[in-house]
Design a protein that fits this description.
CATH superfamily: Aldolase class I
Largest sheet: 8 strands, parallel, barrel
Helix content: 25-40%
Shape: globular
Strand content: 15-25%
CATH architecture: Alpha-Beta Barrel
Number of domains: 1
Radius of gyration: 16 Å
Bound molecules: phosphoenolpyruvate
Distance between the termini: 9 Å
Order of helices and strands: EHEHEHEHHEHHEHEHEH
Length: 241
C-alpha cells in the first residue's frame, strides 16, 4: 500500500496570527486516515513546532548546508526548526528563481542528507500543455530533478500542471490518470506516492480519490483555512482499493 498524503503549501502566506489555523489543522490531522503535512513559511516552522505535533515542512532549501548565501535557508536549518519535510522544485521557484532540474536535484540530495522527506514538484506549463509536450516535459523533469536513491520514505512526487495552479482549472480525470501512470512508469521505485496538485478544493477532492495512481494532493490556496482544507483531507484520506 502506497503512502496516502495530503500536504498544504502555504506559500508566502501566514504570520503568527495564523497559528490558530495550524492548531485546528493539527487537531484534525490526529484522527485522519492519511498523512497530513503543512509546508509553512520558514518563519512559522519553529513557532508551529512548539505548538503542534503534526508533520511540518518548508517550501525550499539551499543545496549547501551552510555558507555565504544571503537570504537562503539550508535543509539542516529547516530540520532544526522542526520540519520533517520540504517542497522542492515547485513551479513558482522554477519560474521566479530560474531553478533548473540540476539545481533541484542538488537540493533534493541536500534535503535527504538532512533527513527531510522531499515533495518533488513537476509539471508542464500551459504552453507546453497546448503544444502536446506534457509527457516529454515530465520525463525530462523526473530524469533531471530526481537523483538516484529515492524511496517511499524519503520522497513523494507532486504532479502539478502549472496552468492549474491557482487558476481554478484542472485537467480532466482521465488526463490526470494518464499522466500519473506515465510518471509512475518512469520512477526507479514505483512505490513512491504521487500527489496531484493544482486548484484542489473541497468540490473536486472526491473526484481525485477515485483515480488509481493518485495518492493524495498538494494543496495551495485551499490549505490556508481549515474550513476548506479539512474537507479535502476527509475526501482523500481513505485509500482506494
Ligand atoms: C501549489 O501551488 O502547490 C498549488 C497546488 O496551488 P493551488 O492549490 O492554489 O492551485
Amino acid at each position: 500500500m502506497r503512502r496516502r498524503i495530503v500536504a498544504g503549501n502555504w506559500k508566502m502566506n501566514g504570520t503568527v496570527a495564523d497559528l490558530a489555523t495550524v492548531a485546528e489543522i493539527s487537531a484534525a490531522a490526529k484522527t485522519a486516515a492519511c498523512e497530513v503535512v503543512l509546508c509553512l513559511p520558514a518563519t512559522l516552522i519553529r513557532p508551529a513546532r512548539n505548538l503542534v505535533g503534526m508533520e511540518l515542512g518548508g517550501q525550499d532549501c539551499h543545496a549547501r548546508a551552510a555558507g555565504a548565501h544571503t537570504g537562503d535557508i539550508s535543509a539542516q536549518m529547516l530540520r532544526n526548526a522542526g520540519a520533517g519535510w520540504v517542497i522542492l522544485g515547485h513551479s513558482e521557484r522554477r519560474r521566479d528563481h530560474g531553478e533548473s532540474d540540476a539545481q533541484v536535484a542538488a537540493k533534493v540530495q541536500a534535503a535527504w542528507e538532512a533527513g527531510l522527506t522531499v515533495i518533488l514538484c513537476i509539471g508542464e506549463t500551459e504552453a507546453q500543455y497546448r503544444a502536446g509536450e506534457t509527457l516529454d516535459v515530465l520525463a525530462a523533469q523526473v530524469a533531471g530533478s530526481l537523483p538516484e536513491g529515492a524511496t517511499p520514505a524519503n520522497t513523494v512526487i507532486a504532479y502539478e500542471p502549472v496552468w492549474a495552479i491557482g487558476t481554478g482549472l484542472t485537467p480532466a480525470p482521465e488526463e490526470v490518470t494518464r499522466t500519473h501512470a506515465f510518471i509512475r512508469a518512469r520512477l526507479s521505485d514505483p512505490a513512491l506516492s504521487i500527489l496531484y496538485g493544482g486548484s484542489v478544493g473541497p468540490a473536486n477532492a472526491a473526484l481525485l480519490r477515485a483515480l488509481p495512481d493518485v495518492d493524495g494532493a498538494l494543496v495551495g490556496g485551499a490549505s490556508l483555512a481549515s474550513k476548506t482544507f479539512l474537507p479535502i483531507i476527509n475526501a482523500l484520506e481513505i485509500a482506494h482499493a
